[in-house]
Sequence to fold (230 residues):
Amino acid sequence: MENNEIVNIKGLIKRYPIGGGFFTALNGIDLVFGTGEFAGLVGPSGSGKTTMLNIIGTLDSPSEGTTHVLGHSVGDLSQKQAAKLRKIHLGFIFQTYNLLPVYTVFENVEFPLLLLDMTHGERKNAVLDALKWVGLTDKIKSRPAQLSGGECQRVAIARAMVKKPAMVLADEPTANLDAANSHHILQTMEKLNRELKTTFIFATHDDKVIRYLKRKITLEDGKVVQDETS
Ligand SMILES: Nc1ncnc2c1ncn2[C@@H]1O[C@H](COP(=O)(O)OP(=O)(O)OP(=O)(O)O)[C@@H](O)[C@H]1O
Ligand SMILES: [Mg+2]
Fold:
């Protein structure tokens, strides 16, 4: 691993079994992401964006080729090792928010911190900061069912960023946000990226996100067809 390299993908192929055969979702990907990148995977629906984020996030593994994340080979990690890597270093914003319905906004955002060695006071400060980033301090006692779609999305964003992970993987993070909220959240992410060198990798169709990207990687049919840095 080179010094500032956080993700290294070589010859990555991902096949899913379907109906006795296979569907090739990623078909020979070679990509390197440096620490502190603010990059996005773009491309049509079904091109493999979520599949690639899942592999980078150690939630799925390559069928062929390798993906190294922070120096660890994703396909070779045990469940336990992968869970530890995610718990400490990775933040996720999923296409579906995956909020815990019985928990309040505060508890949902606090959840990833319970796995870390932090005091109650440290956790509280971190959660309140994260809720400030997404503009939801007035909803800390609400439960997901009492929130709008955009508000749920902002809770999910706060939860992904609360522990200030090395890397945030964000799948369509602004799908349900209006222009003002998207802009505000992207600015917060940019700030974390600048000040903490947090690496961001997005999967998105949204022009509001694409405008902020410093690197835009276009996927088509499981292949990289364009890789532009601005
Ligand atoms: N578990 C699975 N089993 C079988 N096929 C799958 C599975 N997951 C994804 N696929 C297929 O792999 C392809 C890539 O899916 P993926 O979710 O990565 O696309 P995407 O680029 O994220 O699309 P979108 O923009 O709609 O979110 C799709 O054709 C999808 O149907
Ligand atoms: Mg997707």
The longest strand covers residues 5-18. The chain has seven helices and ten strands.
